[in-house]
Amino acid sequence: MIPITEFKGRDVAVFGLARTGLAAARALAAGGARVHAWDDNDVSRAKAEAAGVPVSDINSRDWRTFAALVLSPGVPLTFPEPHRVVTLADATGVPIVSDIELFARAVNALPATQRPKLIGVTGTNGKSTTSALIAHILTEAGKDVRLGGNIGEAILDLPPLHPGAYYVIELSSYQLDLTSSLRLDAAVWLNTTPDHLDRHGDMNAYVAAKKRIFLNQGAADWAIIGVDDLYCAKACTELTRASVQHVAPISSGQALGRGVSALDGKIVDSLSGRSEVAADLAKAPALAGRHNAQNAAAAYAAARVLGADAKTIAQAMTTFPGLPHRLERVGSVQGVRFVNDSKATNANAAAQALAVYPRVYWIAGGVAKDGGIEELAPFFPRMARAYLIGQSAGDFSDALRDKVPVTMAGHLEAAVKLAFNDARASGEPHPVVLLSPACASFDQFKSYEDRGEQFRKFVTALAEAPPARNGGAA
């Protein structure tokens, strides 16, 4: 835990008692603050009390006594309208901060010689894989590395700050919206496609939140930014012109005069202005696909500017295990391969997975994002059949009509069985059943992780079942 002493002896409200809220409450209490933690959900409050976090109904308190409101990143800040606790804080002049902001202030309070290195990663897609890959590379390079934020442990649950440590922080747009003091030695912005517009309102607000990752950087710091979409390319041009920090463009398709590219399965290092092939992604099985090539280019750039040598980085990429629910191979049953890409909660993310395989039995559906699956049209020829589940099944079926054979499976277990039977009967060598839903999970599952674990469970059940005879259904 990282104790937060800034509010020692003062009252602090914490709203939202999921992973980050609980960590913030514990860190503030450890630093001597009087914590008043609350959540509108009865179950969350009960879990907080069971974990030793003091629960107090902040709705009935005098807000003028609070030194700050620590807000969970999932709570609406501005759009579609501020949550009532945000309105209360604004009305009484109570500063609103996030757990990331508390962490940033704790780092900034240290003498320069005691400051750890901070690496932040954001992007619509790929930020978890890139964060984990950077942490893996730096660990292989002999660094003292901690990984957290929007991935794994909450930032304030990580071990205490000390010089020589490297904190790799995955940052969502929600977290960046609430953060103003964070200064990153290396800030990575991978890509931007429409997402979370129900929270931000429009693309301008979403892009502005992402761009906050570069706040407070100085001449010694690095901005590492993808240039394969118009939003990030424009931001890269702006940063380069401003010349506040070093800028390293990255791409998974363009040859760059300066930066890092992933071209034809190779990482090309042009950070010095001279291009050299630095790594072969064919030797990194967990980094298949163009989207992972972009992730690898960004991770390479971050590790290089932080002092790791090219040979160490290349070797570390070959041993990177990948992450659950991201093109994760969960098993093979009677020659049929099953791939769990449950993290693909929008069409753009699903496109990255579909690009990897020339032919798939595709399981999709859930709570669709704006635009549905229109952008997946180039991949329709790769779909042997689509097995649709969840709330979006009807709309997806309409989009696929006369283009892709469709089975309305309804639920994931049925989809897995039906896709397995069709793939096995196809006669294709090593057919692939791909769960890449292009949707959020909340209509039928607790989270995308829960969806992926259910998929794994159903595949395991197939593997353990006796083989069907005469080609009958398993």
Largest sheet: 9 strands, mixed
CATH architecture annotation name of the largest domain: 3-Layer(aba) Sandwich
Give the distance, in angstroms, between the N- and C-terminal Cα atoms. 49 Å
Identify the quaternary structure here.
Answer: single chain
Helix content percent band = 25-40%
Our count of domains comes out at 3
- Beta-strand content bin: 15-25%
Q: Record the strand order, biggest sheet.
A: 6-7-5-8-9-10-11-12-13
Using the CA coordinates, give the radius of gyration: 23 Å
Number of helices: 15
Mean pLDDT: 94
CATH class of the largest domain: Alpha Beta
CATH superfamily of the largest domain: Mur-like, catalytic domain
Strand segment tally: 21
The low-confidence runs, each spanning 5 or more residues with pLDDT under 50, are 470-474
Structural class: alpha/beta
Q: Would you write up a description of this structure?
A:
This protein is of the alpha/beta class and 474 residues long. The protein has 3 domains: 11-97, NAD(P)-binding Rossmann-like Domain (Rossmann fold), CATH 3.40.50.720; 101-319, Mur-like, catalytic domain (UDP-N-acetylmuramoyl-L-alanine:D-glutamate ligase, 3-Layer(aba) Sandwich); 328-463, Alpha-Beta Complex (Protein-Tyrosine Phosphatase, Chain A). Helices cover 33% and strands 21% of the residues. The chain contains 15 helices and 21 strands. The chain has helices spanning 19-30, 42-50, 84-92, 99-108, 127-140, 173-177, 197-200, 203-211, 230-242, 290-305, 310-319, 347-354, 393-400, 412-425, 448-464, and strands spanning 11-15, 34-38, 66-71, 96-97, 117-122, 144-149, 165-170, 186-189, 222-226, 246-251, 260-263, 266-269, 276-280, 328-333, 336-340, 360-364, 367-368, 383-389, 406-410, 432-435, 439-440. The chain is globular and about 70 Å long. It starts with 10 loop residues before the first strand and ends in a 10-residue tail after the last helix.
